[in-house]
Amino acid sequence: MSTLAIEKEMTEPAAIRAWAERRMIYVELTDGRIIGFPASRFKLLANAPEEKLKEVAIRLNGFALRWESLDEDITVPGIVAGNFQLPFSE
C-alpha cells in the first residue's frame, strides 16, 4: 500500500454503518459523526421505493455506499464534502 493511500485512510472518515429511514440516508463515520442526506439529492435514489433505499451496503473499506438493485454507487468523501447531483428541494 502506498503512503498516499495510508494517509487517505487516516485523514478521511469512512463509513462504518449506513441505513435509510423515511427517505433519508444516514452514515455513521469512523470519526464518530453521523451524517444524513435526503435521497432526493441523487437521481437514482430520488425515485427509488423506500424498500430499495434500505438495501444500502458499505463498500471499498467504508469509502463508498452501494445499492446493488439500483446500480448506484456514491462515495463517502463526496457525501462528507457535500457533493450531490441535485439541488436541495423540500
Strand arrangement in the largest pleated sheet: 1-2-3
User: What's the number of structural domains?
Assistant: 1
Distance between the termini: 43 Å
What is the C-level CATH assignment?
A: Alpha Beta
Structural class: alpha+beta
What would the average pLDDT be, to the nearest integer? 91
Count of helices? 4
Instruction: List the helices and strands in order.
Output: HEEEHHEEEH
Largest sheet, if any? 3 strands, antiparallel
Shape category: globular
Q: State the CATH architecture.
A: 2-Layer Sandwich
Description:
- This protein has a single domain (3-81), classed as NE0471 N-terminal domain-like (2-Layer Sandwich), CATH 3.30.2020.
- It is built from 4 helices and 6 strands.
- It is globular and about 40 Å long.
- β4 (57-59) and β5 (64-67) form a beta hairpin.
- The strands form 2 sheets. It has a 3-stranded antiparallel beta sheet with strand order 1-2-3. A 3-stranded antiparallel beta sheet has the order 4-5-6.
- It is of the alpha+beta class and 90 residues long.
What brief labels describe this structure?
single chain; 90 residues; alpha+beta; NE0471 N-terminal domain-like; 4 helices; 32% strand
Summarize the helices and strands and which ones pair or pack.
Elements: H1 3-11, E1 15-21, E2 24-29, E3 34-38, H2 43-46, H3 50-53, E4 57-59, E5 64-67, E6 72-75, H4 76-81
